[in-house]
């Protein structure tokens, strides 16, 4: 569909209101920059997503509303953190209909999520292949893994288990990404008090969980054990990028050199979290839904993120620092949990190889 063309109306003209149809039709044909600001994507990308939803999910136009309006109201909620009462007035729908349409789009996006998650391949990532700092030392690395906390709304006696180390009620979301800022795996719904390594173990144990190809590995931080398929930095050694910034702060030994290169590559997971939370501002505060819906919403928006990276790779929202990336710690804690898998010799060799 080209600029200026009309959205095809639902099959019958019997509609409760045409306000929503008229609103989104006008928005699609106005300034693309304004549309992108409100709906987090450009009009042509929005139209393509509507086509995919119609073709690959059971969702379709009804007698009363088209997919475009349902998607637009959903995107305004997740992109602007807009409440139902505002959407109701904007599109001329009842609060019940607004909620129903939101959950229809949520279900459709989650059904698309498996196909939108990027699968690892055997090629060396360009970021590594094209840099003498990283190649050949990290040639088997396929991405980075970390957890991020998203504010949660939880009621009942289980509230305390969702309280994270900062004292906030949150869900702990585990994500893996590649060096093109695309999600490869997302596991949401864990309590904020859960340790990252526990969430990772759950991801690996699930039937359709996280898979790591033979001979490949992800970069992880000190919150995870250093073990096969997951390469962590040296403990008790400077690690964070800001620790090496400025004159006179260059690495002083092989372990610091490894940690600097490791941190430089692993920073991609902090960037993707920053873009994700900047694009979908609903995650800056506790979403006003049942917790099950809050967890599903994370996966749906991760799928949306990947779709947008594919369709318009240069369109990045300003990265905002996350709690994980703004850590002021200059030295990694020197401890090992008893239930962690011990570091094997092959992992030590991988870390030593980086210093060649």
UniProtKB/TrEMBL annotation:
Its main location: nucleus. It is found in: Nucleus. GO terms for molecular function: hydrolase activity; metal ion binding; nuclease activity. The keyword Metal-binding applies. Keywords: Hydrolase, Metal-binding, Nuclease, Nucleus. Signal peptide: none annotated. InterPro entries: DUF8040, HARBI1-like, HARBI1_dom. Residues 145-306 form the DDE Tnp4 domain. Its cofactor is a divalent metal cation. Coiled coil: none annotated. Residues 19-110 form the DUF8040 domain. One of its GO terms (cellular component) is nucleus. The keyword Nuclease applies. Residues 315-356 are annotated as: Disordered. Belongs to the HARBI1 family. This is Protein ALP1-like. It comes from Glycine soja (Wild soybean).
């Amino acid at each position: 569909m080209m600029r200026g063309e009309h959205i095809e109306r639902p099959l019958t003209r019997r509609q409760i209101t045409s306000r929503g149809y008229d609103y989104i039709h006008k928005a699609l044909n106005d300034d693309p920059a304004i549309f992108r600001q409100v709906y987090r994507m450009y009009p042509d990308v929005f139209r393509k997503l509507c086509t995919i939803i119609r073709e690959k999910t059971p969702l379709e136009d009804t007698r009363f509303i088209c997919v475009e309006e349902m998607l637009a109201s959903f995107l305004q909620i997740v992109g602007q953190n807009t409440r139902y009462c505002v959407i109701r007035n904007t599109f001329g729908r009842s609060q019940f209909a607004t909620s129903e349409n939101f959950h229809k789009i949520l279900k459709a996006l989650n059904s698309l999520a498996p196909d939108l998650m990027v699968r690892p391949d055997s090629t060396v990532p360009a970021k590594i292949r094209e840099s003498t700092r990283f190649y050949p030392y990290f040639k088997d690395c396929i991405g980075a893994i970390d957890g991020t906390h998203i504010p949660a709304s939880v009621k009942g006696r289980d509230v305390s288990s969702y309280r994270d180390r900062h004292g906030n009620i949150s869900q702990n979301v585990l994500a893996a990404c590649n060096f093109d800022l695309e999600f490869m795996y997302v596991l949401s719904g864990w309590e904020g008090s859960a340790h990252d390594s526990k969430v990772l173990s759950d991801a690996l144990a699930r039937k359709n969980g996280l898979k790591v190809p033979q001979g490949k590995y992800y970069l992880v931080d000190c919150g995870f054990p250093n073990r096969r398929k997951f390469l962590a930095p040296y403990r008790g050694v400077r690690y964070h990028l800001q620790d090496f910034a400025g004159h006179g702060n260059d690495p002083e030994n092989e372990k610091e050199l490894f940690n600097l290169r490791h941190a430089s590559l692993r920073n991609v997971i902090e960037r993707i979290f920053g873009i994700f939370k900047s694009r979908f501002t609903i995650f800056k505060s506790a979403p006003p839904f049942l917790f099950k819906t809050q967890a599903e919403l994370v996966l749906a928006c991760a799928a949306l993120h990947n779709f947008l990276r594919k369709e318009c790779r240069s369109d990045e929202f300003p990265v905002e620092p996350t709690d994980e990336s703004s850590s002021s710690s200059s030295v990694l804690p020197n401890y090992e949990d008893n239930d962690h898998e011990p570091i094997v010799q092959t992992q030590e060799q991988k870390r030593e190889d980086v210093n060649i």
